């Protein structure tokens, strides 16, 4: 995993991609939670990769987060609130099984991943970014 490419894509382009995703999926906000879960996992895995800590393929944000917190305990404040996102790796796949989230819930999922991303970025900015 290339930590630089994972954490520091072209930031204006990243913002545009997020905006388009939100607009495209607005009628089906359930996908916001799925994408937030995916992004949270990738950010946590990038943090672990930077620290040369092996991890297995998993959707378990709690396990990944716990390992990140062992490295930097201050991450707990953003990891713990994001743990429930792990369920959205699979919940939305079964039509009719999960209620459509309201706009506030979808926005909260995006806020959670943004918090995790920013926290990891703060800890690695001077180390990873050229």
Give your account of this protein's structure.
By secondary structure, this protein is an all-alpha fold. It has a single domain (about 5-130), classed as Four Helix Bundle (Hemerythrin (Met), subunit A). The chain has six helices and no strands. The chain has helices at about 5, 10-25, 30-50, 60-70, 75-80, 105-130. Helix 3 (about 30-50) packs parallel to helix 4 (about 60-70). The longest helix is centred in the last third of the chain and has 26 residues, at about 105-130. About 25% of the residues are buried.
Give the topology, please.
Layout: H1 3-7, H2 11-25, H3 30-50, H4 61-71, H5 76-82, H6 103-128
Which terms summarize this structure?
130 residues; mainly alpha; Four Helix Bundle (Hemerythrin (Met), subunit A); 0% strand
Question: How would you summarize what this structure contains?
Answer:
With 130 residues, this protein is mainly α.
């Amino acid at each position: 995993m290339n930590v630089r490419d994972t954490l520091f894509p072209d930031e204006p382009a990243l913002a545009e991609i997020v905006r388009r995703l939100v607009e495209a999926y607005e009628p089906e906000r359930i996908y916001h939670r799925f994408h937030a879960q995916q992004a949270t996992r990738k950010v946590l895995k990038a943090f672990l990769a930077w620290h040369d800590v092996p991890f297995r393929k998993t959707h378990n944000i709690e396990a990944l987060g716990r390992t990140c917190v062992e490295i930097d305990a201050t991450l707990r404040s953003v990891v713990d609130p994001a743990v429930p996102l792990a369920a959205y790796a699979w919940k939305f796949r079964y039509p009719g099984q999960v209620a459509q989230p309201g706009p506030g819930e979808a926005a909260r999922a995006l806020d959670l991943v943004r918090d995790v991303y920013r926290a990891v970025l703060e800890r690695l900015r001077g180390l990873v970014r050229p």
